[in-house]
Structure formats: structure tokens, C-alpha cells
Design goal:
proton-transporting ATPase activity, rotational mechanism; 5 helices; alpha/beta; vacuole; 34% helix; 4-stranded parallel β-sheet; Rossmann fold; ATPase_V1_fsu_sf; V-type proton ATPase subunit F
């Protein structure tokens, strides 16, 4: 079992989402940029032109490379583009939460966390 000391530096929320979702969360104060020279942002704005590989890279960076991220929020319709990565992610920290967007309602049947909960309860 991991100690709380292993997770004490996880103090940020990362966001992978459409422009409206990311803008709203940045206005709420979740934005952070690491110190130079790398200056990594804790968010990625995704549109139709965004390559799937860029989304996968951001997801991997937020979930494995960055040790200061506690929660990764991702729009569900964007998570669908990298569903294989989201569904196979099992670590407790950072937690990955799928959220709805203005144009794409939340579908509990697609949510990887709810799928795991249902398996746990034998549904």
C-alpha cells in the first residue's frame, strides 16, 4: 500500500478537452505552467484538427510523466478517441474522470470508471 507521502506533491488538475471546457476550467483557476525551460501546461485544447497522437501524448504525460497531477479531467467524446488508453489505465493517481461537454452529453455506458465499478459488483 502506498503512503500518503508518495502522493503529497500531487496538487494540480489536468484537463484534456474542447475549447469551452478548458476555458471554463482555466477561468476557475486550474491552469498551471511548470518552470522553464520545459514550461509544460496542465491542459490541452482539442478540436477537430487535433491529431489523436497529440491527445495520447498529453494523456500519457499527465498520467505517467507528471508527478504533480492528482486528477485528469477529459471530455468523454475526446476520451472516445483514445478509448483504448483510458480503459486500460488502472492507477489510482492521477484519477481520470470523464466529463461531459456543451455539445456532447455524458453517457454512463462509455465511462471507464463506471465499467470497472459494475465489474466489481458483478453486474
Amino acid at each position: 500500500m502506498a503512503t500518503t507521502a508518495a502522493f503529497k506533491d500531487r496538487q494540480f488538475i489536468a484537463v484534456i478537452g474542447d475549447e469551452d471546457s478548458v476555458t471554463g476550467l482555466l477561468l476557475a483557476g486550474v491552469g498551471h505552467v511548470t518552470s522553464p525551460p520545459d514550461s509544460q501546461k496542465n491542459f490541452l485544447v482539442v478540436d477537430q484538427k487535433t491529431e489523436t497522437s497529440a491527445i495520447e501524448h498529453a494523456f500519457d504525460r499527465f498520467t505517467t510523466e507528471r508527478k504533480d497531477i492528482a486528477i485528469v479531467l477529459i471530455n468523454q467524446h475526446i476520451a472516445d478517441r483514445i478509448r483504448h488508453r483510458v480503459d486500460t489505465y488502472t492507477a489510482a493517481f492521477p484519477s481520470v474522470l470523464e466529463i461531459p461537454s456543451k455539445d456532447h452529453p455524458y453517457d454512463p455506458e462509455k465511462d471507464s470508471v463506471l465499467k470497472r465499478v459494475r465489474r466489481l459488483f458483478g453486474e
